[in-house]
Amino acid sequence: MKKIMMQRLTKRNTSGKEVEGNYTLPNTNNQPTLTYPIRKTIRQEDLNFLNCFALPYEQVKKHVIPQLKKEELKILKEENSSINIIVKDEDTREAFDTMKLKRRGKNYGLMGPWMFNFVNRRSLNIGQQIGFEYKNEIWHFSVIKR
User: Fold this and answer.
1) Closest Cα to residue 91, out of 132, 57, 60, 62?
2) At a CB cut-off of 8 Å and minimum separation 6, what does 103 contact?
3) Tens-place pLDDT, residues 64-103
């Protein structure tokens, strides 16, 4: 598993002392902030080591497919095909490049070390809501509701 460390941001309080934590990057180049239009409530199947993490088909079709490169679209048109993706956990500022977006029939799912990279590391449980947003060739991930 290859993990890419993202820059940790710090802020200073009014007295100039650094305050640690995860902060949103400033809005540069007039880019909108993340809204996580792809949302899903964790189910038992999502916590199974053998399953891929199923994504809401219509949401992926609407918010991701139009942004993919021609080569990636060509690959995903083939049955049981997958493309390599980077998923960045916006809450912890870590990114993982060991994931794949897989198409199986009319379904899309995340393949790879989902259990280790997200479920175990973030202590995800049934009923929690997570969100994804695909922007600039990165899948941005966040826990929306615990």
Assistant:
1) 132
2) 76, 77, 78, 79, 80, 81, 82
3) 999 999 999 999 998 889 999 999 999 999 999 889 999 8
